[in-house]
Amino acid sequence: MTIVVKVGGAVGNAAGPLVEELAGRTDWVLVHGGSDAVDRLGDALGVPSRYYTSPSGVVSRRSDPAHLDVLTLALAGRVNPSLVAAFVARGVKAVGLSGIDGPLLVGRRKEGAREVVGGKILRVTDDYAGTVERVDGTLLRLLLDRGYAPIVHPPAVTSAGEVINVDADRAAAAVATAVRAEALVLLTNVPGLLRDVADPSSLIARVAPEEIEAVLPLAQGRMRKKILAAQAALAGGVGRVVVAPSGRNSPVAAALRGEGTVIG
């Protein structure tokens, strides 16, 4: 059995319980983001993060060249090394991998992105965001088979060598497909998909594959990307996806028990 775990980087996520739990397992690939670290570093460097909302309601980070530099520095220089070091301290043979390494994550730059501004739909220019089209599953399997724990983060790279920002949830779905994972666990700072974002008790415990399109309108902000990532993972052959909170003891085991939103 192989599982892929993605932990978010927004405020309210907790990596400590996850590290403690995964250090006792040998069957995983970890994918991470780092939105809070990127935002804080950008503010410190005078390159504040900017976001836009597409006509379909998806919130995306605007990845102009200056911001892409900040994102790469924050993830490769701060977030990933701290995670790798935490695992190494617990005896894990952890290996930090950018999507550029190998290359591990190969994608294409988005064209024709649109944003809603004041009720108008405008074209997004000078944006180096993209989507993952290919994952080097052989590299990941090689590491896993030799007892190494891959810890993966964006950005990705195009076949022409152009660095692009990619959504970490969608990247995790592509990774899960590539390694033929039994499950993809998307750990976040909320209980799961909620009918009412202001009411944690409104959790939707299970979503069948054929129900994904029906619940998409309930997925606001970044949660929409998680549901779309789940849809992509299931289409790629992953057995199930669970969206669950990171800030509790043994968050992966809890998610695999169904404590969150199970999709599949």
Show the helix and strand layout:
Blueprint: E1 3-7, H1 16-22, E2 28-32, H2 35-45, E3 51-53, E4 59-61, H3 65-88, E5 94-98, E6 105-109, E7 114-117, E8 120-123, E9 129-135, H4 137-145, E10 149-153, E11 156-158, E12 163-166, H5 168-178, E13 183-188, E14 206-207, H6 212-215, H7 222-235, E15 240-245, H8 251-256, E16 261-263
Parallel strand pairs: 1-2, 1-13, 2-10, 5-10, 6-11, 9-12, 13-15, 14-16
Antiparallel strand pairs: 3-4, 6-9, 7-8, 11-12, 15-16
Helix pairs in contact: 2-3, 5-7
Outline of the structure:
With 264 residues, the protein is of the alpha/beta class. Helices cover 33% and strands 27% of the residues.
CATH class term: Alpha Beta
Distance between the termini: 17 Å
Helix-strand topology string:
EHEHEEHEEEEEHEEEHEEHHEHE
Q: Stretches where pLDDT falls below 50 for ≥5 residues?
A: none
Give the C-alpha Rg.
17 Å
Structure description:
This protein is an alpha/beta fold and 264 residues long. It has a single domain, classed as Acetylglutamate kinase-like (Carbamate kinase, 3-Layer(aba) Sandwich). Helices cover 33% and strands 27% of the residues. It has eight helices and 16 strands. Strand 3 and strand 4 form a beta hairpin. The longest helix is centred in the first third of the chain and has 24 residues.
